[in-house]
Write a structure and sequence with these properties.
With about 375 residues, this protein is an alpha+beta fold. It has nine helices and 22 strands. The chain folds into two domains: about 240 residues, Rossmann fold; about 120 residues, Nucleic acid-binding proteins (OB fold (Dihydrolipoamide Acetyltransferase, E2P)). The structure holds adenosine-5'-triphosphate. The site of adenosine-5'-triphosphate (ATP) has 12 residues, from β2 and α1.
């Protein structure tokens, strides 16, 4: 059993009355990996984390840490550190004491914890705890705040104290459930980077729950996309973005959202959108999806009408309507394209890379009939 082993969740099921929160979830997190678990509200993320932590008993399935089956083990015996959105710190304790709590509980017995007698009985254990607390605080840049109480800290600083309390234990597994959602936007971006750095140094398998797909994509080694109690896809951020296995994954990841048009498949397997030839062949395709940055103006493209132009600085978003079907289509272009565009104008947008999906939402393998078109 490696201390820094991975985590395996095998066919986990959990229902609350008639609500199936986990419908047979299987997931593997490699040793030292940072995995982001992302999905809309209510999809079962917190339930899965609580099951891994041992705070929620599964109806069926197993949780393994390395070669250890921990399914029946209580939370206190799993060696998991958790950081939640509500980082409950003890208000009457200093930052130092807050970070030290798990070490005091674990390393000192009841006698050694006594304020006056304790130091005489604890050998070097208290000094070791103090050194570990200082080390964790330094690595989070809160070393200068150790004497303060939580009420004297900013939200970001409190968040770091909660992180310090989690890392100081050197856990086998790190679980973070929306830990940054209380921070303002700029602090959140900064803290994201710090968390990734911290993870590299701590090295424990980490599962990071968020409903913010951009947070998941920028931080994680791999991303697991969860919806309605199921994991739809697990992969690197690049794979999830470029090769989504399911239309719901394609729609959840990427901003602005991927464009989706209804498609028909001809008897010869040609995929058409309102008669327009996509250049692809795919059996059973009912949807043709294309990312905004993959649409370029070209005479042989999809006929659209330009409704609105959004200038974002580094790019332009064209909000258009596909004329034959009335479907909304958003294209992302270079800002220089602005000069030649006008609201209300008719133009053609050609997808450089389209994805096909079937009626069940699953990806349909596509073949390019003409390489020039794909
Ligand atoms: P959020 O992002 O909003 O926190 P989530 O993805 O973490 O959502 P869960 O909290 O895991 O979702 O909830 C999954 C489903 O189980 C939801 O439908 C929720 O209402 C239900 N649920 C969660 N906990 C309980 C409970 N203790 N009793 C009854 N139903 C519950």
């Amino acid at each position: 059993m490696g201390r820094l082993g991975g985590v395996v969740v095998d066919q986990a099921r959990k229902a609350y009355g008639t609500v199936a929160a986990l419908k047979g979830v299987s997931l593997t997190i490699a040793p030292g990996e940072f995995l982001a678990l992302v999905g809309p509200s209510g999809c079962g993320k917190t339930t899965l984390m609580r099951a891994i932590a041992g705070l929620e008993a599964l109806d069926a399935g197993r949780v393994m840490f390395g070669a250890d089956d921990v399914t029946a083990r209580r939370a206190a015996d799993r060696d998991v550190a958790m950081v939640f959105q509500n980082y409950a710190l003890y208000p009457h304790l200093t930052v130092f004491q807050n970070i030290a709590v798990p070490l005091v509980m674990r390393r000192l017995n009841a006698w050694q914890r006594l304020p006056l007698l304790g130091p005489l009985l604890s050998g070097g254990a208290r000094e070791k705890i103090a050194a570990d607390v200082r080390g964790a605080a330094e690595s989070l840049a809160i070393g200068h705040l150790l004497a303060r109480k939580p009420g004297q800290l900013s939200g970001g600083q409190r968040q770091r104290v909660a992180l310090g309390r989690a890392i100081v234990r050197r856990p086998r597994v790190f679980l973070m459930d929306e830990p940054l959602s209380n921070l303002d936007a700029s602090l959140r971006t900064e803290t994201r980077r710090e968390l990734v750095d911290l993870h590299r140094r701590v090295g424990a398998a980490t599962i990071y729950v968020t409903h913010d797909q951009s947070e998941a994509m920028t931080m994680a080694d791999r991303v697991a996309v969860m919806m309605a109690g199921e994991i739809l896809q697990v992969g690197t951020p690049e794979a999830i973005y470029a090769e989504p296995a399911d239309l719901r994954v394609a729609g959840f990841v990427g901003s602005p959202r991927i464009n989706v048009l209804d498609a028909d498949t001809g008897p010869d397997g040609r995929v058409l959108v309102a008669g327009w030839d996509t250049g692809l062949q795919g059996l059973g395709a009912t949807h043709y999806a294309v990312r905004p940055e993959s649409l370029v103006p070209a005479a042989d493209g999809l006929p659209v009408r330009l409704e609105h132009i959004e200038f974002l600085g580094e790019s332009l978003l064209l909000h258009t309507r596909h004329e034959p079907t009335g479907a909304a289509l958003v294209a992302r272009l270079e800002p220089q394209a602005r000069k030649s565009l006008e609201r209300g104008q008719a133009l053609h947008l050609r997808p450089l890379h389209g994805l096909l999906f079937g009626a069940d939402g699953r990806r349909v393998r596509s073949l390019a009939r003409s390489p020039a078109l794909v």
